[in-house]
């Protein structure tokens, strides 16, 4: 049985690191190997609450699902949540721990390196294999001295590295060669090989390039993963899976009409994956929108979560979207708000202590719900279970804002607001509950006047998620050299690999 660890790095962000890690984890899990994913440092506003009460990147929760284990804070010990162009909230082992700028964060990485090492050690003690994911690209040598997640992490933990390149962007052979070439010799020694992702066409056309890449670098390409249309759930950046604004691949309606859903794409949108459960349903077309005309002909408007409620509410007004949302609701068509989007639907949003905005800020909301929101300095994290519309539902909460007054009936017991065609909740993941989602879509279609829309009774969101991670595992099994992959995991990078001369000074260990 294979034992060990590997780091999957990428030539760029969105090269496919998260998908490759998930696929390798699922492939190993299907073979009976105890495996866990790991990302030392993530930067994402898509997060979940774990059973142990902390907050981690959603991609790591998806990878945990692929591995057959419960997500925990050890899977992603450092999470950066951007709240502006230059600042991020730091989440350490699941708990918010201050704000940083790109420059000030460098002063924290030495201490955070110990946190990362401790989490990795715990995972390696509990599992046969840990499949680690890098962040961004290891070629960002300007950040090498304080690196937590790429070659600095690999060096500190003596991990072999596979570099993934996205051929769909073009120039992948240069990306792979260049990524290796800019690393110093000690870092290069850990790079065991390459993986090419999202290939379309006949692999034989690529073979001469791969042969030459091996001649130049001394490293093999362990496989070429073909482009797969059916992969879009739980993307690290869910918007990267959107083609022409449409989420997923909507199946034809069961009845005579489509239900058209517009999700407002805030500048600091968070947990955009809430819309994915709706997009899995036949006849439901979910589209991200950023300008008012895209709301005019839609049936349902969704205001999703945001990491910056006050500033995104200001954007909503400045862009004309606020007036479009109010007009939509004024015509009796449904609006659904989730977390930050729910908070915007009320009368006021205040931030007395500066949890997200300037201390003492109070702004007017859209006034579509009888609701007042105030922000607490301590973030609320929870994984609640309740009954809604006769269905048992689960979800998770991640928010600073709390309801200080509400005059509307609750959506889930006392939680949330239900004013007929305008609904809101702080719960994420609510639509992943199949029974509740069917009732919700029936309600939304009725409020929108879509009497010909028929809600499917056989859609399982959990089954669709399983299908997609199994598809990733199939790609790994059939298109990677899994024997070589196992050898790298168990034995590390081969000794004596060639060093490409770059003229760079040695990087710190």
UniProtKB/TrEMBL annotation:
Domain of life of the source: Bacteria
PROSITE patterns per the UniProt record, alphabetical: GATASE_COBBQ (PS51274), GATASE_TYPE_1 (PS51273)
Residue ranges occupied by any CobQ/CobB/MinD/ParA nucleotide binding domain in the UniProt entry: 7-231
Coiled-coil boundaries: none
Transmembrane segments: none
Function text: Catalyzes amidations at positions B, D, E, and G on adenosylcobyrinic A,C-diamide. NH(2) groups are provided by glutamine, and one molecule of ATP is hydrogenolyzed for each amidation.
Name used for this protein in its record: Cobyric acid synthase
């Amino acid at each position: 049985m294979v034992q060990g660890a590997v780091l999957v790095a990428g030539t760029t962000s969105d090269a496919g690191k998260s998908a490759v890690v998930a696929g390798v984890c699922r492939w190993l899990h299907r073979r009976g190997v105890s495996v866990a994913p790991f990302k030392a440092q993530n930067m994402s506003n898509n997060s979940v609450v774990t059973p142990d009460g902390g907050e981690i990147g959603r991609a790591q929760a998806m990878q945990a699902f692929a591995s057959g284990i419960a997500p925990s804070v050890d899977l992603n010990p450092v999470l950066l949540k951007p709240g502006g162009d230059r600042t991020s909230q730091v989440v350490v082992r699941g708990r918010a721990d201050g704000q940083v700028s790109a420059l000030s964060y460098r002063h924290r990485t030495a201490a955070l390196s110990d946190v990362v090492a401790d989490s990795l050690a715990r995972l390696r003690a509990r599992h046969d294999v840990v499949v680690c994911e890098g962040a961004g690209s290891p070629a960002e040598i300007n950040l090498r001295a304080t690196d937590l997640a790429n070659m600095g992490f690999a060096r500190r933990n003596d991990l072999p590295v596979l570099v993934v390149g996205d051929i769909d962007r073009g120039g992948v052979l240069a990306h792979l060669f260049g990524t290796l070439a800019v690393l110093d010799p000690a870092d290069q020694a850990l790079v065991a090989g390459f993986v090419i992702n999202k290939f379309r066409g006949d692999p034989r056309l690529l073979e001469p390039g791969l042969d030459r890449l091996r001649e130049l670098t001394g490293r093999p390409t362990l496989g070429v993963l073909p482009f797969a249309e059916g992969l879009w759930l739980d993307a690290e950046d869910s918007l990267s899976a959107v083609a022409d604004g449409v989420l997923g691949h909507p199946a034809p309606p069961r009845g005579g009409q489509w239900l058209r859903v517009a999700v407002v794409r805030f500048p600091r949108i968070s947990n955009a994956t809430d819309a994915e459960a709706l997009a899995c349903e036949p006849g439901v077309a979910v589209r991200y929108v950023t300008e008012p005309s895209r709301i005019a002909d839609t049936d349902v408007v969704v205001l999703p979560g945001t990491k910056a409620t006050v500033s995104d509410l200001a954007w909503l007004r400045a862009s004309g979207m606020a007036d479009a949302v109010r007009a939509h609701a004024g015509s009796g068509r449904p609006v659904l708000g989730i977390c930050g989007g729910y908070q915007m639907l009320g009368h006021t949003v205040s931030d007395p202590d500066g949890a997200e905005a300037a201390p003492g800020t109070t702004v007017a909301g859209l006034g579509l719900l009888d609701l007042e929101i105030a922000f607490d300095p301590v973030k609320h994290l929870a994984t609640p279970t309740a009954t809604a519309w006769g269905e048992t539902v689960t979800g998770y909460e991640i928010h600073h804002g709390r309801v200080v007054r509400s005059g509307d009936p609750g959506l889930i017991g006392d939680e949330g607001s239900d004013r007929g065609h305008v609904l809101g909740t702080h719960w994420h993941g609510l639509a992943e509950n199949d029974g509740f989602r069917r009732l919700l879509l029936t309600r939304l279609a009725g409020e929108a006047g879509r009497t010909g829309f028929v809600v499917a009774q056989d859609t399982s969101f959990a089954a669709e998620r399983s299908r997609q991670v199994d598809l990733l595992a199939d790609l790994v099994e059939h298109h990677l050299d899994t024997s070589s992959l196992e050898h790298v995991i168990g034995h590390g990078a081969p000794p004596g690999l060639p060093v490409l001369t770059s003229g760079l000074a040695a990087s710190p260990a």
